[in-house]
Automatic annotation (TrEMBL):
Protein name: Glycosyl hydrolase
Any one GO MF annotation of this record: hydrolase activity
The keyword NAD appears for this protein: no
Swiss-Prot/TrEMBL keywords: Hydrolase, Signal
ThuA-like domain span: 67-291
Amino acid sequence: MLTAVASAAAAAATTLLALGVPASAHDNGGGHPGATNLGDPEYGVCRGLDPNCYHSWGNFDLSKGLKVLVYSRTAGPRHANLGPALAPGMNPPLTAANVAQNAMIRLGQQNGFAVDWTEDVTQLASPNTLFRYNAVIFLSTTRDALDDSAQTSLRQYIRGGGGFVGIHNAFGTEYNWPWYEGLLGGANYYDHGPAQTGTVQTVDRNDVSTKGLPNRWNFTDEWYNLVPFPTDVRFLAKVDEKTLPNGAKGSMGHPGHGDNHPVAWCQYYDGGRSWVTTLGHEDWAYTNTTTNDGAAYFQQLIVHGIKSAAGAEPFCK
């Protein structure tokens, strides 16, 4: 639901459109064979598809069980599926209106991983806290959701082999922090059109997060347009813009991404793993168990994305 973005992103989009270059011109087709090495001109880290960009440092022991942290702090517009803001501390009480957080706990119970949850930025202030978790999930966070201490902690966690999962408005977070933009695949939210039903195409069915999904499935979302467009990532799913009845043009004028409008991808980043999806706007997407509306497929996608980023399943292969 965001309409304001970082000035750098807006300037980039204006430049692209003025030159007649669609955002999809940045696409590497999902076939980039290796990593962007240390000294990457944009983000200064090792990132891409080369497993050599990953370094565990022995920080994680899966024999103790799989545990993830769901972080849903909002410092701007708040998606309805998050419900009311949470009290300080770890695992504060949830109400029935905290739909997405409750759903993540349920999905963990059903799929073999424990879930803690918080919106308290002080809980992210120490990497020693984060290293208790095999993956950290940003669930529709917004804008400046981290302070300086939490930013430093997240970087140390990822550099120590941590797993990151970004869901939906994780892309509308920390706009002015280039390292975080790189964690998202070198991408940022720009705008979206009206929420509408379209067809998701599973473009890579070899990845554990997409294996078993249909080639095409219906889903309703806001279909985020991105500036910059993700690079050096493995694209896993995209939306077929031709199936969007209201088109892909966004509220800020972005024309959409044409034949390659990605909605999920993965990469190694700065020693860690990053799996992200722009999907997850509708509350029923987290609770329905049906396939005709795509909810069951969405949940399957994020469950295995989480488990792969956490190291419990093969990652980005």
